[in-house]
Design brief:
mainly beta, seven-stranded mixed beta sheet
Length: about 350
């Protein structure tokens, strides 16, 4: 943890892992989550907890909501970004939410959605080809006026593309998050440098005054969080989840690193949103053989409630007989959403 005071961020730890998924795929052909669920985003809205997440059905991603009263037991609410009917649209294959604008950045404050001009605002990403994250994704903007959060509308064209970016992002974009700070929006996103494996993914930054027009930052648009040879993030620094830790006065990123074998949760910290330092060991390590996160422990969403941190993430392990849903790519894996907490659950 070079450069970071020893123990400075230990209050953010969540050592208690539940092996039972809080959300998993259905295994039913034709459903949005036939093969897996992924990428949780947990927030509080109208006296309930919501989990925005994506499902993979073998063709592409679709975005859905689940609801809960206690952050442990979840029920499906509905699909909110579905596959389109117009094959000429850039996001026809499927739309994967990335982030929704929040009222407050403080990790100790319940995350609630913020309205601007009477609308809730979401950035999502979409891949151009059928399959598992096939082709270079671009980002779009969607909005919702209904309080049930089920009716979202999309702009006609993307708001952000890899095509005018730097060499590190020339093959496509992935998930982003964005925060409102000092009168403008700061969007962190990961992208890949080439279309063929093994590629590298790093995290960059763009800023905007209106959510529509984005400028890469700093000037050349180089990554603000990059890979490091020989580390657990030697190939990827991905899926940013940026919050403000009011206890230490630091911005924190619950992203993930990948070394070519395991994706593991990482913690990065910053005083100014532009200069970041990554904790050298995995923040959420992959599990032991047979555990639900044996292969990967990544794609985090963190919420604080009633004196306890709840850290949701996507867990992956090799598929086993009896699994309800299996991602067919590669050798097959079971991919679900699980939970870690800072103190034991009752």
């Amino acid at each position: 943890m070079a450069g970071l005071a020893k123990g400075e961020f230990e209050h953010l730890r969540t050592p208690y892992k539940r092996e039972v998924p809080v959300l998993q795929g259905s295994g039913e052909a034709g459903t949005y989550n036939a093969m897996s669920v992924d990428c949780p985003f947990v927030f509080y809205h109208n006296d309930k907890f919501y989990m925005m997440h994506i499902g993979f059905d073998g063709l592409g991603y679709r975005t859905a909501l689940a609801v809960s009263d206690n952050l442990v037991e979840w029920e499906h609410e509905g699909v909110i970004l579905d596959r389109g009917e117009d094959a000429s649209r850039w996001d026809y294959v499927g739309a994967a939410y990335s982030w929704v604008l929040l009222e407050n950045n403080d990790v100790y404050v319940l995350p609630r959605l913020k309205q601007v001009d009477g609308k809730y605002w979401m950035i999502y990403h979409a891949y151009p080809e059928f399959g598992y994250e096939a082709g270079g994704a671009k980002m779009g903007l969607a909005w919702c006026e209904s309080e049930n959060l089920l009716d979202w509308h999309r702009l006609e064209e993307p708001i952000f593309s890899y095509e005018n970016g730097g060499s590190w992002e020339r093959a496509g974009l992935y998930k982003c998050c964005f925060v409102e700070f000092e009168g403008r929006y700061w969007m962190f996103y990961n992208a890949k440098d080439q279309p063929n494996w093994p590629w590298t993914e790093e995290t960059g930054l763009a800023v905007s005054d209106d959510l529509l027009h984005w400028t890469r930052f700093p000037g050349g648009g180089e990554p603000v969080m990059g890979v490091k040879p020989g580390s657990f993030y030697s190939q990827y620094v991905s899926d940013p989840h940026i919050r403000f830790d009011s206890r230490t006065g630091n911005w924190v990123n619950f992203g993930f690193g990948f070394d070519g074998k395991h994706a593991q949760g990482l913690l990065a910290t910053s005083k100014d949103l532009t200069n970041w330092e990554i904790v050298e060991e995995p923040w959420i390590p992959h599990g032991e053989p047979g555990e639900v996160d044996e292969t990967h422990a990544h794609k985090s969403s963190v919420i604080y409630w009633n004196g306890r941190f709840y850290h949701f993430y996507c867990a992956c392990r090799p598929a086993k007989p009896g699994d309800a849903s299996i991602v067919a790519e590669g050798e097959g894996e079971f991919r679900c959403i699980v939970l870690r907490t800072s103190s034991p659950l009752d």
